[in-house]
Design a protein that fits this description.
single chain; 157 residues; mainly alpha; globular
């Protein structure tokens, strides 16, 4: 039961965040305070991210909106990776534990997007489900690599 507590706390945060409007979650004013000189603007201007049938870029959205977009998508990727690790830890030991953690994380990502679709000014995105699931896969692969590396280090002794 103790192994479920971190997972439940992570899910509460997702549930609360999904119920907020885009305006409530906006970080642009904070970014303007923290990044008044627009660091890396010329570098970031080189990138365009296809999203919802449009290209998101500094040119299209402006510097602060683009940085916010990158932060939001990076947060999705990392946060759902952490959720996948919490699920993996909470699951009993069995053969398909990692696959199960990915599938459950994907289902939670779908539920998160559905919840967002019920919030005014928010939409559900299949691309976000893919991003969240990719974060889960990446986190579990990273964990597997760490475990493999530790095992190899102990075998070599």
């Amino acid at each position: 039961m103790k192994k479920l507590i971190p997972l439940l706390l992570l899910l509460v945060v997702v549930f609360l965040a999904s119920g907020q409007t885009a305006e409530q979650q906006s970080m642009q004013d904070i970014l303007k305070d923290w990044l008044p000189n627009k660091p890396f603007e010329s570098f970031l201007s080189l990138f365009q991210v296809p999203y919802w049938g449009i290209l998101v870029s500094v040119e299209e959205r402006g510097y602060y909106a683009f940085v916010e977009f990158l932060i939001r998508k990076g947060t999705h990727f990392i946060y759902f990776g952490i959720i996948a690790l919490a699920i993996y830890i909470a699951l009993p030991r069995f053969k398909y534990r990692k696959v199960t953690a990915v599938v459950i994380t994907m289902l939670l990502a779908i539920a998160d997007e559905f919840r967002q679709s019920l919030t005014s000014g928010r939409t559900a995105s299949f691309q976000d489900v893919l991003l969240d699931t990719s974060g889960a896969i990446a986190a579990l692969l990273f964990m597997s690599f760490i475990q493999w590396f530790k095992h190899r280090k102990n075998v070599d002794r």
